[in-house]
Amino acid sequence: MKHTYIFCALLSVLIMPGCKSDMDFLTEKPATFYTIDNAFSSSAQIDQELVSIYSQLRDLWANPSEEGWIFVFRGNGTDMFDVPSIRRGNTFNNYGNINPDNGTFNNFYSTWYQLIGKANLALWSAELSNITWASPADKAYAVAQARFFRAFAYRNLGEIFGGVPIVTEPVSTPQFNFKRSTRVETYQFAIDELLAIENDLPVTTDKGGRLVRGAAQHNLCELYLALGTQLAADGRAADANAAFTKSIEFGNKVIDGGTYSLMKTRFGSRATEAQGNVYWDLFQERNVNYQDGNKECIWALQIDYAAYRAEDGKSKLPYSRTYSPVFRDGAKDHLTGTAEDVGGRGISQIMPTMYTRDEIYAGVWADDMRNSDIVFRRIFNGNVPSSPYFGQPVPWSVMYNGSADATTNMNNRSLCYPVSCKIATDKYTGLADGENMSNLFRDDYFIRLSETILLRAEAKQRSGDKNGAAADVNLLRERAQCGYMVTAADMDDKFNLILDERARELVYEECRWNTLLRMGGTIAVERIRKYAYWPEAAATLSFNYNLWPIPQTVIDTNKDEPLAQNEGWNR
């Protein structure tokens, strides 16, 4: 079509000589494809730009394309997750291979700036004179979503990389002189963005997935906590305490504001089934969204099976495939197959460390709904007819230590582990259509009230209120019907209790790198050395860091303005 148009235009010029100057003739005036100058002519097109950001974030969380760097984003290489023996080459714990040239760092960095670029474009286009809005509120909500996304990106960049360049306008020409802000300035920019649009976001929406006010308030709770932590590290104690007070204030808005509450009784699509409990209900199909009656959900990514079948092959959670164990390799004499009884068609791209699967539930911590078999399944009946455990539970001692060879046992332990209800189900959607128990087709959480509670608990502890911190943690432990309630004495200064409770409550939900690096000091490296599954971490992590390195390619291409590398990475 485009070639036909150009040919006809040229022909008309040739048969009418002298009508236009050579310069007019040679000046390209495209009318059949979009440029930055003509791409936006309606508010609906701006909304589509926002939808593209929602889509990018969905793919970042769910990782339907199984990109290795996104498994790091979701926790590979932290205290909580490592790789099994069959993925040893994908480890993110061998610091002989981890340096500023590592592609994972660049993928993180560039992805958040891609999102910032989309948000900046949406904000720029929203002010075009030719755009007609249904109402001022309609425009305000579009602008609020774009500014939220921009703040969200900078919050992530600040937690992971520290101070980064603040870009607030679309960039249409190459630029080589970006200037780093400080980490405090990065956090403050994100805070200012969210404060500006907090009241332009609706309290609730009719449909799941769109941003609401609670999402901004949750992020303000986290940002003020992060800001206070950095200010304290900079020796600014009074400013730090003021930031912690603001963190608690925004946590209060979410937790005590009347919109959200912890789910404490059975609810949703499978509430009448005897086998479940309320924590299990949180992760069943048609139960995730606030609109489904789940008052704990603040913001969720949207998955639609009909869309997956019709046109959107990425509308899925490939969690059973990417996160579930591989018993058929690690315990092949007793367990095999890819059905519900072994957690689906798992290939284990990353696996929970021994800390995540066992240590956080040792001793007094064992009595916990989140450690129940329906939530974190530990009972697997042998399904190999020749096994002495056929039809009976296979002991973990057999799966973990069934060989006379220590290396084989370590490999097997990496392949065999409990299965969370967050990554597998006993009722897979789509089997009649040819689905093979690789994917879940439920929505998933970006933000759940439990994390807001844990952020507020940390802010209280950092402000000196250990009793208040313990009380917040116990809100979750009471819901989980735990046998042990924590006290102020449990709230240690290394934040181990907070981090352990986050692991119990938010496994497969939180982005652990953000949490560990946000806490500063040597918390991240100490926990990685202690809890990493394979010995490479302890052997090669010979330096301290509390930020990831600025990607070397970013430093090299920003040739007109030196970008300082983060401490620990100039090696």
UniProtKB/TrEMBL annotation:
Transmembrane intervals: none
Report the locations given in the UniProt record: Cell outer membrane
Q: Which UniProt keywords apply?
A: Cell outer membrane, Membrane, Signal
Task: List each copy of the SusD-like N-terminal domain by range.
Answer: 87-205
Q: Does the keyword Ribonucleoprotein apply?
A: no
RagB/SusD domain: from which residue to which, for each copy?
401-569
Indicate yes or no for the key word Membrane: yes
Q: Which family does it belong to?
A: Belongs to the SusD family.
Q: What is this protein's name?
A: RagB/SusD family nutrient uptake outer membrane protein
What species is this protein from? Chitinophaga alhagiae
